[in-house]
Write a structure and sequence with these properties.
With 390 residues, the chain is α/β, with parallel strands linked by helices. It has eleven helices and 15 strands. Residues 7-18, 40-48, 98-107 and 124-139 have low confidence and may be disordered. This is Heterokaryon incompatibility protein-domain-containing protein.
Amino acid sequence: MVPFFASPSQPQEENDDADLSDLCQRCREIDLNLIFNRGSRPRRTISSILQTVLCLGQLDGESSCALCRFFASMRRHNPSLQPPTGPYHLRRYDMLCVSGEGWKWDYKQSFPLWAVEQGSGDEFEDHHPGYYTTPRGSIGSWILPTRSTPDPSPFLEALPVIDTSVNYPLLRRWIEGCEGHSICQKTPLDFEPTRGRKRPPIRGINCTTRRIEMIADDDTYLALSYVWGNMSLPAVNGEENNRSLPATAIRVVEDAMMVVKELGHRYLWVDQYCIDQNDEKNKEAQIGNMDQIYERAHATIVAFSGINSSCGLPGVNGSSRIQQYHFNSSKMNLIGLTPGLTAKVAKASVWTQRGWTFQEALLSRRLLIFAQDQAYFLCASGHWAEGCTP
């Protein structure tokens, strides 16, 4: 184990401390800059993927030390220890990208991640680090640094997630980048015998005027995928071709309209409002057209965390999200990276358990997923998270 403590003669010049009064004596002497700026490459063996960096001992989440509290919040469960015992260690993993056929490692694309775990470290040596991606009792799982200056090494950087506001410029960049993916320009319908099928006209909510208008073939629109639940539908104002939303629509729709406007678009398609629920003939035609409605949408907004239409979208219109764990210092910030949309997270979502939403997700070319911790983007070329660089 390498000594990552500052020299006793120069503790403050070498250390990354914003306020020494917030740190215990041990944490004052830890050289965070040396730990999180090391750019060494992993050797070409799976066992070198993990390095035990620093022994942290027993951690107290109620400690008066800011760094001790951060490490305590980032504790991960080691499934090899039953029951969990022993001191905690700060460990570095080098995540390696897989390319080609089989397990062929591309060592030109590796990046370090840090984790706080129990055990000696020997029990981790024969496992790929991706096995340890589900935290227990912790929002964050991996630790990532942010730096004031860019690093040429292949580092994955953490991004701060504001608990009351989505990063709309980042969402716009995700969609703009996806527009350049050749595979994302086509939809499954382009390859189906039904691609020449005449589409019935559809209506969408004009998010500026709140009127429900006919969407022209060359107009772009976003669709909404959400759990309707047992909520009653607020009455739509007007009749036939002169309909508009009530002064206050259901929460998830109000939030989705905000997202559409922030992304620079005009129209939002929502089944409850854009399908005339009182016209059975129109309703039947639109339900039969559902595949093309979601295929042709520029993107689909997913209310991933909602249990009904009153829940809204986390981080939109001031609604709060789960706060991101972080430690701030004068030279470097450490951020807890959430584990993402793992199977465990997906299983807990009502949205993933519905047949209609499964169809909507499958047919959509782009998904903007609003979860309790952050926003995610999914397309045919990859996926991105609000809390880290691509």
